[in-house]
Here is the input.
Amino acid sequence: MLRLIECVPNFSEGNDLNIIKQITDSIESVEGVRLLNVDPGKATNRTVVTMVGTPEAVIESAFRAIKKAGELIDMSKHKGEHPRMGAIDVCPLIPIANISMEETAKYAQQLARRVGADLNLPVYLYEAAQPNKERNNLSVIRAGEYEGFFKKIQQPEWKPDFGPAVMDEKRGATVIGARDFLVAYNVNLNTTSTRRANAVAFDVREAGRTKKENGKPVLDASGKPVIIPGSLKAVKAIGWYIEEYGIAQISINLTNINITPMHIAFDEVCKKADARGLRVTGSELVGLIPLKAMLDAGKYFLQKQKRSVGVSEKELIKIAVRSLGLDELSAFNPQERIIEYMLQSDTESKLVNMNLKAFADETASESPAPGGGSIAAYVGSLGISLATMVANLSSHKPGWDDRWGEFSQWAVKGQALKDELLKLVDADTAAFNKIMEAFALPKSSDEEKANRKKAIQDATRFAIEIPFKVMEASYASLEIIKSMAQTGNPNSVSDAGVGALCARSAVMGAFMNVRINASGYDDPIYVKEMVDKGNEIQQKTIAIEAEIINIVNEKIGLQ
Here is the structure.
């Protein structure tokens, strides 16, 4: 399985597009790395870059970027709102797929060692890559910033982990580490006061603030300042004024969005700001965010309205953007800001991304794919989509306000089945293509013949499993369809009936594909098992569909 890590280097340049372009060009010069996002900030004079790829490719790309940034950026002339200590201020590695944090930390150490030795640059390790837990916090390492590091770096306790213990006047020093996914997120306020923004930041950040009486810190029995913790865990925050926008912001790092997700941070800032006579006007995402975080936000705001959360992925994202005000300062394009969307291949969902006419035209062409398997999956997705529509209409029906949660749960289940069936539309065509590719393999030698036969059998099994999944998903949809026919909005009962007809067609059509593909598979035990299971699903489907149609006809009347 492909191992992937993300790297989010922060460069101390946010205004000169030529310098930024040269740095990003160095990143893209490495094969196996994909540049996902470049987010320059004028007031912070800082650019956050997001890239992803195999570990070896990413650390090579990061090394080249660090080298290029050191050549182009002069820290002795740098000014910006964000804390910083070097041309490449911080360079975190984040495990994304099939790699542990421990392994990622070793790659960070490998990169840091190379930067220190080959570039003669002071390097500090942080987070999971730093074995000394007394100096693994980024804000503690960076305290004093560029200007203060000329003295700090000479202190024995602040000797760099790699490279010289001398501050580089032009390039500064850098911090390299491994951490969990971090969301950089700014909340906009209707004030220009940094002091008031900081007050709100201290209210919410986990580190809180020092307790004071008569303007002086209150000390505990051991002489240490008493800390009043903030209201949010796994949150770092400061207030600042952004001249570019003419507003103050709460600049937030969400270090664990499983503990404090973006929408909870937003609502808490709203509450604390209101208590101080301020108003939140919107927010701003820096870099990328996981899809789940956006979907969770959309669901959260719909639940607050007591509305069904069983709506499409696109609609949930739209709700999240509007509710958080993510488009207040600039347009928010989900395709460019959500990490899963950035990683999608253009050909991954070729069929389901077509419009209805193009899909029909493609099906009607002389090409053998898409064929009956893809159509069965699509028909199944339409059937459960109708049932999901009934659930959503029912959750909003006047007089049924106390039942919104019940129908919302049905709609959520329906959306999941719809999404699964839509994926199977393209998967079925991919299965057909695998068989064609296997048949096209060379067969000159005995070894080639054996390899070709194995490839054909593997592809054939895959081509059996895909339509069988269509059967299972379409059959599962009948539970929702039947419930909507029985208890849903009576004005939409015919929609539930059409959904049942679609589900039955999807099951029966997919079973035809299971059987025709199984005829070319050499394992008779497996073939019999799949055909027996398919027959059982088909018979149950026919029986449930008949029950649903009877319910629908009885409610409609006029037979």
